[in-house]
Amino acid sequence: MGAKLLFSMPWCIGGDFNTVINASERRGGEFNKWSGRAFNNFILQAKVVDIPMQGAVFTWSNNRVEGSWARLDRFLVSPIMLSWFPNMMQTGHPRTISDHGAITLCVLKADWGPRPFRIDIAWLKDKELMAEVKKNLAERKVRGSSSCTLQTKLRVAKSNIKRWAVSRVKDVGNTKEIEDRLAKIDSQAARNGWSDLLRKERLGILSELWKALRLEEQCWKQRSKPEEIQIGVAYVFEDHYRNVLWSRPKIRSLPVKKLSRSESEYLEEKFSKEEVWVALTSCDGNKALGPDGFKENWSVICDDFMLFMEDFHRDGSIVKELNKTFIALIPKCVKPMTMKDFRPISLVGSFYKILAKVLANRMRKVINSVIGETQMAFVKSHQILDSFVVAEEIIHHWRKRK
């Protein structure tokens, strides 16, 4: 959530979120309401937009007989990105080898004109094409200088290759037809479930797809620069081994401090009127104005308040009506004009404040037993930044000595 604050430009996030927004995005299996509610809250808090998707309805399937389908993959874009690219859309593509189908995010394509001619290495594996090119080059008679002859023959060869590519490219790496056949099988399975015949047919088509993908791989290798491939492979390995923990550190032998039995029993004792009164008298009613007056009327409210403390000690819950909070807006500048110029401060009610005081007072008496010698946080008269200040002073001292 905090990462989006680092970006002032349009941004988006995309991938497998492993959940759906509502029940309509799932077929087969149960819809997890809690997961869906959490995902919707994330979208609201991150202030992102789930733009409509065309193409495939679902992006994942478990390929089982009972059939389970869901839209787990999507792009979520920032409002500023949507304002910059109003014609943006995401498209779901048919599943192939993976259980997930690819999705793409794009805008209206710009017309860059005709693409320059470039031969793919995969085409050179076609014996029929190579024989035809050699035949045309040998039979072509051109008059003129050697450079003119060569240029003319190459132009003729290019025309023959382009004409062949239009009619035969599907046989040397174009997977569109195979993917369409897979999509039809998946559609049948989504409607009627998986059968042995459909499974067998899909496996056969996948075998064809693997062969076509190998040819396409050769084309992509040619279109990518060797330096870019090396950098990409090196980055993948570096990122992988940076995050892999080959051995987990053991903490069994560390001297972990523990509370004694008497200290543990003290923390679990029932609340007494004396410690509640100590916590109450330590609260200054003038610091956070609101529902108060407990000190002046303690004799009247004491019994009811102690019943509240007993209930909390038993089940650890507080009725939400007793935890109402006032929000005060503190100006950040001399002349505040917008909500950004104020700092919100929560003024908790007396019930919550007294309860927190009682718990803090109990913890204060035993906390030294579990705090290390070098720990600064949660220690009276120390601050959490003390350790950093000492470290900076040591570094500064040794730098001066050099």
From TrEMBL:
InterPro entries: Endo/exonu/phosph_ase_sf, Retrotransposon-Effector_Assoc. Signal peptide: none annotated. This is Reverse transcriptase domain-containing protein. It comes from Dipteronia sinensis. The lineage of its organism: Eukaryota, Viridiplantae, Streptophyta, Embryophyta, Tracheophyta.
